[in-house]
Specification:
By secondary structure, chain A is α/β, with parallel strands linked by helices. In chain A, helix 2 runs parallel beside helix 3. The two termini of chain A are about 20 Å apart. Helices cover about 65% and strands about 10% of the residues of chain B. In chain B, the strands form three sheets. A five-stranded antiparallel sheet of chain B has the order 2-1-5-4-3, with helices on both faces. Chain B has a five-stranded mixed sheet with strand order 7-9-10-12-11, with helices on one face. A two-stranded antiparallel sheet of chain B has the order 6-8. In chain B, helix 4 runs antiparallel to helix 5, helix 5 runs antiparallel to helix 9 and helix 13 packs antiparallel against helix 14. Chain B is rod-shaped, with a radius of gyration of 78 Å. Classes of the chains: A alpha/beta (about 130), B alpha+beta (about 725). At the A-B interface, helix 1 of A face helix 13 and helix 14 of B.
């Protein structure tokens, strides 16, 4: 089942890696290099899931998550934080900002796609309920 | 106040008394005249008016008028002539009494002229001689006018005058000295003696006048006895009886010296009686005066004695040589017994050091007659000095010469002592006060010093506090910087690793196209190194987080067998690769506990990895079981115990101490093929402790080691 992913990630190699893994499985990935660009794209393309790097230049991932969740049209779209942050409170902070999931970097290529796909399933239910 | 009744009654009484005494007197009168031998009523009138007051004059006038009227009509006068003569005589008698009383009151200072000799003279002169002359003149003139015979006028005047005078002298003292009788035994005795004396003189006078008139001076003796024995009233009574007896005898023709007429004898006798009366009165008055003076003196002496005896001050009377004539009891009590003092010298009692001064003052006192005030010491009977204040004064004899010296001494020893004591106490108090003040000052200074020190201390403390606050701030800043640094490092290191591991995995999985065996082998090495690097980064990150107290453990339900399975799944390939047996022995009752599964797995993974790493032969065993009570001190209640046993190289005792410290990888003595960060055990122990458990080790060099991980079955959330 082909899904549309919005990937907000400033590092080009990581962007390529994630895009490679997801497109290998037949998903569509729309990349965004920064928060504002990601927010603008999300409003336009209505992705099925947003992968969000936290450590972004300028507007950081927490602010981007809050901005995306504050848009009623985008609110149901799951956001999965992908971050190399592993300090105290990173996970909590990310969830508090509106993220639905949290995946630590470095990612494991063998499990990454499956991990991400887990966050897809409940969303339509939420929409209809 | 005198009531009218009383005035009338008294006047009537007096009139009656006048009349009765007049009748008695007329019995002694010369034949055919009203010139009597002794006119007693004159004394009654004067005595009454002098004693009770001039308001009695009507009584006198009435009594005199009636008496004369009765007498004159009796001797044959016509009533008008008798009445005129009686009125005239009564006037004279009344005037006589009033004038006499006035003169005596005026010149003898009162109604009782017998207290002093001088008053008796006034009585005799004014009452008995001058006033009676008035009456005699009036009487004589009346008589001569009535009879028309002026030839015998001189005789009549003299007889009248003397009769009245003797009447006053004999009777007035009776009236004036008479006192209401109280019949006490003593007075009864005196009354009896008085009557006896009166009877005695009556008898003696009767006998003398009858048989031996020339020795009539004998009665003087009796009068003297009466005066001395009986006093004024008694002697007056005796004189009365003498008077009566003698008059009776002469009136009856006795006691007349040859050649004398009866008239002359009468006059001579009147004179005699008058002189006797005056002498008696004088003597009695002087005696009474003396007695009163003596009484006064006695009372005064008694007062003086009482004062002296009760005086605390010492009083001594000294002669001019300084010898004791008299001394007060208090003086004797302090200075010595009577035997010691009598006739002894005052100066012997004076402290030797003061004698010269006292003697000089004494001599000065005697010479000038002026008192001295002096303070010196006397020696008491025990020889102890007594501080005294003395005041001397002099007694002069009747010539005005200094005859004695009176010394009054006040013992001021106690007072001086008290004053000295008070002064001493005062000084002591002052000293105390000064001391206190000094101490207060000292204490104040000290306190000020202390206060200063305290202020400095507080200042220092403030300084230190500021420094500490600053240090804390710096530390916190440093902490934040460190955290930020770690976060950044973590990100910056993982981002490239993300690429390396990610792409290596992708290529090794053949997602990017087929690989030949050599490529695959080398790429696996890259992947292995990348993973090791990641582990290293994770360990550094973990220990940093633990040390910064930033690592949190959760407390959620977890399955111990599942965790064990996970861990064993990871390490089994390593053990198999080294040809080691990996035995797992999980007790059946373990089940689910509350803890942090990820950290529990991390600890187990580390311990088992280590065991495999340092074991070349034999095997590694993981035993899991429950432990009751607390083998680890912090574990209350149930504990899950993991034992990781290996048959590896073991540990030397000296290695055990540093085993759990970060970056202190034990030198195994072998060339290790296994990489290690040196952080594993440190992280294990700290994680175990964070979860409320512990990691301990028992090891023998060359035999292998047992690492024991204890975990509370019901862990709490730990920061």
């Amino acid at each position: 089942m082909k899904k549309k992913f919005l990937l907000i990630e400033d590092n080009e190699q990581n962007r390529y890696l994630v895009t490679f893994l997801l497109t290998q499985r037949g998903h569509e990935v729309v990349p965004a290099e920064s928060g504002p660009v990601g927010i603008e794209l999300a409003g336009r393309i209505h992705p099925d899931l947003i992968l969000l790097d936290i450590q972004l230049p300028g507007m950081d991932g927490y602010a981007v998550a809050r901005a995306l969740k504050s848009d009623p049209a985008l609110h149901p779209v799951p956001i999965v934080a992908v971050t190399s942050y592993a300090m105290l409170g990173d996970r909590e902070q990310a969830l508090a900002a509106g993220c639905n999931g949290y995946i630590e970097k470095p990612i494991n290529p063998r499990t990454f796609v499956a991990d991400v796909e887990r966050f897809l399933s409940p969303q339509p239910k939420e929409e209809t309920s | 106040m005198k009531t009218l009744y009383r005035v009338v009654g008294a006047n009537a009484g007096l009139a009656a008394a006048y009349a009765v005494t007049a009748k008695l007197g007329l019995l002694l009168a010369l034949p055919h005249t009203n010139a009597t031998l002794v006119w007693f009523p004159a004394g009654v009138a004067l005595g009454a008016i002098l004693r009770w007051g001039p308001w009695l004059w009507p009584g006198v006038a009435l009594g005199a008028g009636l008496s004369n009227l009765l007498f004159l009509t009796e001797i044959g006068w016509s009533l008008p002539a008798a009445a005129a003569a009686a009125a005239s005589a009564a006037t004279g008698n009344t005037l006589e009494a009033l004038v006499g009383a006035y003169l005596i009151r005026r010149f003898a200072g009162g109604s009782s002229p017998f207290a002093q000799g001088a008053h008796v003279f006034v009585f005799v002169a004014g009452g008995a001689l001058v006033a009676t002359a008035l009456s005699a003149t009036v009487g004589m003139t009346t008589n001569c006018l009535a009879t028309g015979d002026w030839g015998g006028g001189g005789g009549i005047w003299l007889t009248w005058w003397l009769g009245d005078a003797v009447g006053v002298l004999v009777v007035a003292p009776l009236v004036l000295t008479w006192q209401a009788l109280d019949w006490t035994a003593a007075r009864r005795r005196r009354a009896a003696e008085m009557l006896l004396s009166a009877a005695g003189i009556f008898v003696v006078a009767w006998v003398v006048y009858t048989y031996a008139y020339s020795v009539n001076f004998l009665v003087v003796l009796l009068l003297l006895v009466a005066v001395f024995r009986l006093g004024q009233f008694g002697s007056a009574v005796v004189v009365l009886f003498l008077c009566v007896a003698s008059a009776l005898r002469i009136a009856q023709g006795h006691g007349i010296v040859v050649g004398w007429t009866q008239q002359v004898a009468l006059l001579v006798n009147q004179s005699f009686i008058g002189v006797m009366a005056v002498a008696t009165l004088l003597l009695a008055a002087i005696l009474r005066e003396r007695a009163a003076a003596g009484e006064l003196l006695r009372a005064s002496a008694q007062r003086t004695r009482l004062i002296l005896e009760n005086l605390a001050d010492l009083v001594a009377v000294l002669d001019l040589e300084g010898r004791h004539i008299y001394y007060s009891p208090s003086y004797g009590a302090i200075l010595g017994s009577a035997d010691q003092l009598r006739g002894s010298s005052y100066f012997a009692r004076v402290h030797p050091a003061d004698v010269a001064e006292v003697r000089a003052a004494f001599a000065e006192t005697v010479r000038c007659g002026a008192g001295h005030r002096l303070e010196y010491r006397l020696l008491d009977r025990a020889g102890q000095p007594r501080q005294i204040e003395s005041q001397s004064s002099v007694i002069r004899d009747s010539d005005g010469q200094v005859s004695q010296v009176v010394v009054v001494c006040r013992d001021v020893t106690e007072r001086r002592r008290a004053v000295a004591e008070v002064r001493r106490l005062h000084e002591e108090l002052q000293q105390h006060a000064e001391q206190l003040e000094r101490r207060v000052n000292e204490r104040t200074t000290e306190l000020q010093g202390t206060q200063g020190a305290l202020m400095n201390l507080v200042e220092d403390l403030n300084e230190k506090t500021r420094e500490l606050a600053l240090a804390k701030e710096r530390a916190e800043t440093a902490d934040r910087v460190k955290s930020a640094f770690l976060a950044t490092m973590s990100h910056e290191l993982r981002t490239p690793l993300n690429s390396i591991i990610g792409f290596t995995g992708i290529i090794l999985d053949g997602l990017a196209g087929p690989l030949n065996p050599e490529q695959e082998r080398q790429l696996a090495m890259v992947q292995n190194s990348a993973r090791h690097l990641l582990a290293l980064i994770n360990d550094v990150l973990d220990i940093s987080k633990i040390e910064a107290a930033q690592l949190k453990v959760t407390s959620e339900p977890m399955s111990v067998p599942a965790a064990v399975t996970n861990v064993v799944g990871i390490v089994r390939p390593l053990a198999e690769k080294k040809g080691l047996a990996l035995r797992v022995d999980v007790a059946p009752d373990i089940g689910t506990i509350r803890s942090d599964s990820r950290r529990v797995e991390q600890v187990l993974l580390n311990l088992i990895n280590n065991a495999i790493k340092f074991t070349e032969q034999g095997g590694v065993t993981l035993r899991v079981g429950r432990e009751q009570g607390a083998a680890a001190p912090r574990c209350a209640g149930d504990v899950v115990r993991f034992d990781v046993c290996d048959t590896g190289i073991g540990l030397k005792p000296e290695s055990l101490a540093t085993l759990f410290q970060p970056f202190k990888q034990v030198d195994s003595g072998l060339s290790r093929s296994q990489e290690g960060t040196g952080l594993g055990l440190a992280i294990c122990r700290r994680l175990a402790e964070l979860m409320g458990g512990s990691v301990t080790v028992e090891s023998e060099w060359g035999k292998g080691s047992v690492f024991t991980f204890r975990l509370p079955a019901n862990g709490e959330d730990q920061p």
